[in-house]
Amino acid sequence: MTYSNNYSKVKNWYDMGMWNITRVRNAVKMGWITEDEFKEITGEDYE
Hints:
Shape: globular
Mean pLDDT: 97
């Protein structure tokens, strides 16, 4: 699977607790990651 350019950054920041789920959701809105990547990172559906 090919990931978005910022996927690794967002995932690392979320995993380290530097970003909460709202920030990850905003990354989708800004086009940094996809909705599928959001689910993979957070374990929740993007709404």
